[in-house]
Amino acid sequence: MNKGLNNRLESEVALLSHGKAGRVRRHFKALAGWRIKLSDAESTAFGLMEVLVIVLFVVALWRVGNAEETPQAGDVFAIFSYLWRFVESLDQAPVLIQKLAKLRDLDRRLASVAA
């Protein structure tokens, strides 16, 4: 998806310099479309992460509830505090993956220009 957006952005200066109003309008509509696709992909990734988090907490709660020994309140607190910190770090994963994909596309473009 980044490739499509970057292809559009590379042609923007020439299009704005020499393009007619209709072409410029189509260009910006296409840019909006690419940005919407990227946003939708990011939202899907966040949604999947939230489902994973819910499953993780349900499994942890089930395991604590079915433990052979009755857990102490501090044990339960420690388990869920650790899980919460883990989940907070996972929240950045979709953004980092998107930025990594963008950097890879830019790296390929720069390598092709340098070659």
Automatic annotation (TrEMBL):
<dbReference type="InterPro" id="IPR036640">
    <property type="entry name" value="ABC1_TM_sf"/>
</dbReference>
<keyword id="KW-1133">Transmembrane helix</keyword>
<protein>
    <submittedName>
        <fullName>ABC-type multidrug transport system fused ATPase/permease subunit</fullName>
    </submittedName>
</protein>
<dbReference type="GO" id="GO:0005886">
    <property type="term" value="C:plasma membrane"/>
</dbReference>
<keyword id="KW-0812">Transmembrane</keyword>
<dbReference type="GO" id="GO:0005524">
    <property type="term" value="F:ATP binding"/>
</dbReference>
<dbReference type="GO" id="GO:0140359">
    <property type="term" value="F:ABC-type transporter activity"/>
</dbReference>
<feature type="transmembrane region" description="Helical">
    <location>
        <begin position="44"/>
        <end position="62"/>
    </location>
</feature>
<dbReference type="Pfam" id="PF13748">
    <property type="entry name" value="ABC_membrane_3"/>
</dbReference>
<dbReference type="InterPro" id="IPR011527">
    <property type="entry name" value="ABC1_TM_dom"/>
</dbReference>
<keyword id="KW-0472">Membrane</keyword>
<feature type="domain" description="ABC transmembrane type-1">
    <location>
        <begin position="2"/>
        <end position="64"/>
    </location>
</feature>
